[in-house]
């Protein structure tokens, strides 16, 4: 089969086309023919050698996709040949509370991922995709699952809540989609008025350009009559956490997801606000199989669909990485296999 490997992890040029033997399904395993793959920010970090320890150079990358079952090993009951199927990339985290042991089996990182014509997966991790859900809608296992975990599993979102999403990347756009489907209000930030216009067209209620309004927390408070946001999808990390605390409503939930804003330039001058507002600050990894099942059901019933920015062919995978790194996208960048 055709595949890509991550090479020496010195930058985008490390991504290398290769060929591998077709995988064989052993007991408890399933082989999928890959149909569609979703790119995420951590895929860039892997190629740059900055996502934890460097990985073997022959690792097949990418942690999010949808495939068609072509072979099922003995004992598998979750799917059958011909099913379209997906899985949460922490394949041993099936349900219950998170354990650091989940990081030991992370497809696309510790084990081979989606950027190949076929992928082998533990059968217990898989779930079939209903006919009513398109391939594009089923690209859920990273950005969408993270947003769901933040809003629903941690944030206990309810109609009328105000969700604040930082930026217009994959997680934030899915947070916007999921929140609006649940009857919540959404505030979103960006440095681009054009991206904010798109977010507004998707239903965002408050749009703030953090480049022209650097004190975006004060602006959010002004636009909410001093109340603030009930749930904050914190993708900026240390550099934006202080403003997120300021922008929070009493009893808000700040869910830490990433560090796209870079390092902090100072400590938390508003540390006491965490206590004064009774805030909850929680870090999360993507999510479990059980969470993905619930998300998939919500997508099926509500018709939530991704914003697809651009679709590349399998032979164009290096260009897809470069496009994602350029940062001009809004929503998902995908790779489609014939």
Automatic annotation (TrEMBL):
Domain called Enoyl reductase (ER): residue spans: 11-335
SMART domains linked: PKS_ER (SM00829)
Molecular functions (GO terms): oxidoreductase activity
Q: What is this protein called?
A: NAD(P)-dependent alcohol dehydrogenase
Q: What is the lineage of its organism?
A: Bacteria, Pseudomonadati, Pseudomonadota, Alphaproteobacteria, Sphingomonadales
């Amino acid at each position: 089969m055709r595949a890509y490997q991550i090479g020496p992890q010195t930058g985008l040029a490390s991504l290398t086309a290769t060929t591998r033997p077709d995988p064989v399904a052993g007991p408890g395993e399933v082989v999928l023919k890959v149909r569609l793959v979703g790119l995420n920010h951590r895929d860039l970090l892997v190629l740059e050698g900055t996502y934890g320890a460097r990985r073997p150079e022959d690792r097949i990358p990418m942690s999010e996709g949808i495939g068609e079952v072509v072979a099922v090993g003995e004992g598998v009951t979750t799917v059958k040949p011909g099913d379209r199927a997906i899985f949460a990339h922490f394949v041993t985290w099936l349900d219950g509370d998170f354990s650091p042991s989940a990081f030991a089996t992370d497809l696309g990182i510790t084990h081979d991922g989606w950027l190949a014509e076929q992928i082998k997966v533990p059968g217990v991790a898989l779930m079939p995709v209903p006919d009513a859900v398109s391939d594009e809608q089923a690209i859920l296992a990273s950005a969408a699952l993270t947003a769901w975990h933040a809003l629903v599993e941690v944030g206990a979102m309810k109609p009328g809540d105000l969700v604040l999403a930082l930026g217009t990347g994959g997680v934030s756009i899915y947070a916007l989609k999921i929140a609006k489907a649940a009857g919540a209000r959404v505030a979103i930030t960006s440095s681009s008025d054009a991206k904010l216009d798109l977010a507004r067209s998707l239903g965002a209620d408050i749009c703030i350009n953090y480049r022209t309004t650097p004190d975006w927390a004060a602006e959010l408070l002004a636009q909410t009559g001093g109340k603030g946001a009930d749930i904050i999808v914190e993708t900026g990390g240390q550099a934006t956490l202080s403003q997120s605390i300021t922008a929070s409503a009493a009893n808000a939930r700040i869910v830490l997801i990433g560090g796209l804003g870079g390092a902090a330039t100072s400590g938390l001058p508003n540390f006491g606000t965490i206590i004064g507002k009774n805030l909850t600050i929680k870090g999360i990894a993507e999510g479990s199989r059980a969470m993905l099942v619930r998300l998939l059901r919500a997508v099926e019933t509500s018709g939530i669909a991704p914003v697809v920015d651009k679709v590349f062919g399998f032979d164009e995978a290096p260009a897809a990485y470069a496009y994602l790194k350029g940062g001009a996208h809004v929503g998902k960048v995908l790779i489609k296999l014939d």
